[in-house]
Specification:
This protein has about 675 residues and is of the alpha/beta class. The protein has 12 helices and 38 strands.
Length: about 675
């Protein structure tokens, strides 16, 4: 009997521990794997095909609501809960395959749960009848709040012989669809079964609750206690006081049952970046502090803060501006990934800055930053902001060249446009600044020794073998240029003749390909930009030095769309200055009609640029040399092979008069 009693207690304790909204000391990073109208990019099959790459950075993937909604839909007009999962993103079979693949790769999937409201089949008050595990689930007109749609639903119901619930909405109303009465036992029964279906039948690990301000937080607590998700986060858009009240409102028996998105964190970061005033990251804004700041004696709320800098509702859309992040996307993500809370990266940011975000997340993981980490502000000025987290990671954002830490205490391991990361020497590890991935054009990586031993060196190999004390050794901070093709780079600390902490990177470096339609005309000042696939608006250019060559209004002049780069599938745009210049611009920025944008890039006339910066000079017409005095005596490829005639790519030609010329032939 004692053994049985003890077993029951252990089971209850385990359930109680699990049902606390979000794990404590959680070090994972989440991906929001969709944006508005991302029907192609968020297909289940497409996301599944990226599992290996995603798993390098993310432990959680939040996907759109996956039930059928009666037509093409992002899922916020949910209709079927149990029986139809052939959605705008794929079939039920494809959905389950993706979730299982993610699970095999170490990632868990978060369901978008829409239970504040629900769509009707044919009139104002009818819902689908569905069977799950032998039981029938169907909502009726009496499951609709009495004051739905400002009373319009009640007027319609009275005129058509229907009755609504006698209970008013327990939260904010929304007129788009029928607001569900969560006091109804039938609604509760349906929701509880639905959540268990998502977990047990489809394989989700947790929930992102949509529009939680639409009903009392106590119901989120009730549903999570019943279904036991590993993760739960609510969309409670507002200031921190409202969000904290919502989190506390989910408590069951005094235990919080859900995390929340940290909207105040997002507002602060957006304002700092958009205004180029990094002092605003000092966190206080209109008397509120972000949830992850947890300016309370207990620090309770950091655990329940899911931070983000952009999402599908705040992004810049072509038909609705919203309140987007207008600049410094990389710096905003760098700040987020260095801070407490659980960071949620927006899909468009991932698509545009995949390799940079990979590296940021890798530094976060190496430093052991979690959702309950503690941060300390080190410097706060309009031009820059510096913060250390857990005394292991230091992030500087803004004009980073204006503030550098003590080199004895911090070692720089990563930097980019308006951000820099430093690690504490006590971590005792080698570091390679660029993440594994595919890169275009000339690519170098920095090897760093994160150690307090002044005599430490970095040993490395590029053939996949494990470094030894006899491998090539270099000083910390050495830049290593990667060859074109595939390289497995391994690096390790070498301290007192002993090899420590081997790290590995796998690279594919492709030669940059410039399409033949990129032409620089005689006397023309121009530049070419290959836009990421997610940049679907007209590309704008802002080029300047002491003069503003693109006009006085950001984001500058519209570029001309030339065509698609067949090798990458991305469109190429051309900016041409149409006036007379005495000098050329010094700097240039390309943007997706304002947001997102590139860094400030050094201008080169006829330059070919991507999101990563300058890649090549456009050469418009290259012909085999014609000369009476000299003839070609030998032709070589760039890797030294002698060939009979010039081929596509870079050729080295030697002439009878002793001259050597490099010639680039394009298809």
């Amino acid at each position: 009997m004692k053994r049985l009693f003890f077993s029951v207690l252990m089971i209850l304790a385990a359930l109680s521990t699990q049902a606390q909204g979000w794990p404590e000391n959680y070090g994972g990073v989440m991906l929001q794997a969709f944006y508005w109208d991302s029907y192609s990019d968020s297909k289940w099959t497409k996301l599944e095909s990226q599992a290996d790459d995603l798993a390098q950075t993310f432990s959680l993937v939040w996907i759109p609501q996956s039930g059928y909604c009666g037509g093409q839909s992002m899922g916020y007009d949910d209709l079927y809960w149990f029986t139809n999962y052939n959605s705008s993103f794929g079939t039920k079979t494809e959905l389950k395959s993706m979730i299982n693949t993610f699970k095999d790769k170490g990632m868990k999937t978060i369901a978008d749960v829409v239970i504040n409201h629900r769509r009707n089949k044919s009139n104002w008050v009818d819902f689908p009848k569905e069977t799950y595990n032998g039981e029938v689930y169907e909502m009726t007109s009496t499951d609709i709040c009495a004051n739905d749609d400002g009373g319009n639903t009640l007027t319609w119901a009275n005129s058509n012989g229907y009755s609504l619930s006698t209970n008013n909405d327990t939260g904010e109303g929304w007129d788009g669809m029928r607001d569900l009465d969560h006091k109804s036992e039938n609604v509760q029964r349906c929701v509880k079964a639905y959540l268990k279906f998502l977990l047990n039948d489809l394989g989700y690990a947790g929930f992102r609750y949509d529009m939680v301000k639409g009903y009392s937080p106590s119901f989120t607590g009730m549903y999570n206690t019943d279904s036991q998700p590993e993760f739960s986060v609510g969309e409670c858009w507002d200031g921190t006081t409202t969000i904290r009240n919502w989190v506390n409102g989910t408590k069951v028996d005094g235990v919080i049952q859900s995390a929340a998105f940290d909207f105040q964190f997002r507002y602060v970061v957006r304002n700092a970046a958009n205004d180029d005033n990094w002092q605003k990251l000092g966190m206080q804004n209109d008397g509120n502090w972000p949830l992850m700041s947890s300016k309370t004696s207990s620090g309770t709320y950091r655990r329940y803060a899911v931070t983000f800098v952009e999402n599908h509702d705040t992004e810049w859309r072509t038909n609705a501006r919203q309140d987007p992040l207008l600049r410094d996307t990389l710096a905003a993500n760098a700040f987020m990934l260095a801070m407490p809370g659980t960071p949620c990266v927006f899909l468009k940011h991932w698509q545009s800055y995949r390799n940079e975000i990979k590296s940021m997340a890798a530094v976060r993981q190496l430093a052991g930053i979690t959702n309950t980490s503690v941060y300390t502000q080190l410097a706060s000025q309009k031009a820059y902001y510096a913060v250390q987290t857990d005394s292991r990671l230091l992030a500087v954002v803004g004009h980073t060249e204006q503030w550098t830490p003590d080199a004895a205490q911090w070692i720089k391991v990563l930097d980019g446009y308006h951000y820099a990361y430093y690690l504490a020497p006590s971590l005792q590890t080698a570091w390679i600044d660029k993440a594994s991935g595919t890169y275009e054009g000339k690519t170098s990586v920095m090897l760093s020794a994160v150690t307090d031993n002044a005599n430490a060196r970095i040993v490395y190999t590029t053939d996949g073998t494990t470094p030894t004390a006899q491998s090539t050794a270099v000083a910390s901070g050495t830049q290593l240029e990667l060859p074109y093709g595939t390289t497995t780079l391994k690096a390790a600390l070498l301290v007192d003749g002993q090899v420590q902490t081997v790290i590995e990177r796998n690279y594919v470096v492709n030669e940059i390909y410039v399409p033949s339609f990129c032409v620089v005309n005689d006397g023309e000042t121009c530049a070419f930009f290959e836009a990421p696939s997610t940049w679907t608006s007209t590309i704008k250019c802002w080029a300047w030095d002491e003069n503003n060559y693109t006009g006085g209004i950001w984001p500058g002049k519209s570029c001309s769309k030339l065509g698609k780069n067949d090798r990458t599938g991305n469109y190429v745009w051309k900016w041409t200055y149409d006036g007379t210049l005495t000098t050329q611009p010094s700097w240039i920025i390309f943007s997706n009609n304002g947001s997102p944008q590139t860094a400030d890039l050094p201008f080169q006339n006829g330059g070919y640029y991507t999101i990563d910066g300058f890649k090549a000079n456009v050469i418009t017409a290259i012909k085999a040399p014609q000369t009476k005095e000299a003839v070609a005596t030998a032709i070589y490829t760039i890797d030294g092979r002698r060939i009979a005639r010039p081929t596509k790519g870079l050729n080295i030609i030697r002439y009878s008069d002793g001259r050597t010329q490099k010639v680039l032939l394009r298809p």
